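Example (one chain per record):
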Amino acid sequence: METKNIVIVGVGGQGSLLASRFLGTLFINAGYDVKLSEVHGMSQRGGSVITYVRYGDHVNAPLVDKGEADYIISFELLEACRYLPLLKKGGKIVTNSQQIDPMPVITGAMDYPEDLAGKLAQAGVDADVFDCLTLAEKAGAAVAVNIVLLGRLSRYFTDIPVDKWYEALEAVVPARFLEINKKAFALGRGDQ
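Predicted structure:
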């Protein structure tokens, strides 16, 4: 199998590192070679965070170059747009519709761009934009946005049975948070 590339983008503190470990575990359990790379940046101060997940028969390097991402998973709409150049032709974006103001917007130096979902559609980008925050809150924890996103992503991986996704979830999420995260995953998939 040729190497597949997933880029996870968001703002520090949203759980992108857990999401990358979840996917890494899933693909290792499915028998693939996996490489992960995490770029923290100003993650602890609400800055942009990007992680790469690459899997296939043999993966040489952990980074994803411009135009190579099969999927971009985004915790925030502006971050999806910021990293759009990484998406390959025919790739897909799965993104939370939530907007988190970056520092230039907070300080009043810039305005948050309007109708980013509409702009993605006008540009012909295949984007699944949905409200992950509301689903995470329905599951019982706003911080479960990352797992809601992965639930949604799982709908596009028909070659990996859903029980394998739950096995990976159980492997990476602490037991005391597992039930909320299982519910968040199911809500993201549309199973509840």
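Caption: The chain has a mean pLDDT of 90.
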